[in-house]
Amino acid sequence: MKVIYPGSFDPVTNGHLDIITRCSEKFDTVIISVLNNNKKTCVFTVEERMELIKASTKHLPNVEIDSFSGLLTDYAKEKNSSIIIRGLRAVSDYEYEMQMALVNRKLFPALETVFMVSSNKVSFLSSSIVKEIASFGGEISCFVPKEVESALREKFKGGPR
Ligand code: ADP
Questions:
Q1: Is 118 in the pocket of ligand 1 (CB under 6 A)?
Q2: Which helix (H) or strand (E) holds 19?
Q3: CB atoms near residue 7 (< 10 Å)
């Protein structure tokens, strides 16, 4: 069974990795798909985000890294997959995720969105909070893989952007 885990991953955190690791144990192939969205201002380019995911998941053989733009439903059809993975951290994620799952099912009835509940050790983590801390030179080594830590240090070496 091939599943797609889509997201911004700007950058990938230990929270994403928790979901990716658990998915890789349960499914045959996990395609991590970085959303190329011009409307969202990201700190890392799509290529940089893909490279960081690649470096952080190199120990997981059944993980593929890709990017997409446009509708997730079109992308899922193109990839021949009908399972989307999303992570749920807290009740605050629920409303938006529910809306997306229902809209996507309307557009592609065979599509199932599977929610994975994050481990409570990382449920407070988001890419935004990590970027905020990094922008002020704070300690982020326990929140992100080491490749991401150095990339964030490099991005913010001149202070907040
Ligand atoms: P998006 O802009 O699509 O929400 P993100 O990179 O922020 O992209 O998140 C991608 C997916 O990963 C979402 O389903 C999100 O809920 C999930 N996620 C992000 N951080 C965590 C975390 N700490 N624990 C579990 N899931 C997470």
A1: yes
A2: helix 14-26
A3: 18
Which helix (H) or strand (E) element contains residue 51? helix 46-56
Contact 140, 134 (CB under 8 A): yes
Distance, CA of 133 to CA of 87 (rounded, Å):
22
Tell me the sheet residues that pair with 113: 84
Give the pLDDT means over successive 10-residue stretches in the chain (161 positions): 97 97 97 91 96 97 97 97 94 91 97 94 94 95 97 88 68
Distance of alpha carbon 110 from its chain centroid, rounded? 23
pTM: 0.95
Instruction: Give 114's contacts (C-beta < 8 A, 6+ positions apart).
Output: 3, 83, 84, 85, 86
List, in sequence order, every residue forming a beta bridge with 4; answer none if it has no partner: 31, 84
How far is 159 from 61, CA to CA, in rounded Å? 37
Distance in Å, CA 109 to ligand 1 centroid: 23
Of 86, 99, 113, 129, which is best to mutate to test ligand 1, by the most ligand atoms within 8 angstroms of its C-beta?
Answer: 86
Catalytically active residues are 16, 40, 89, 127
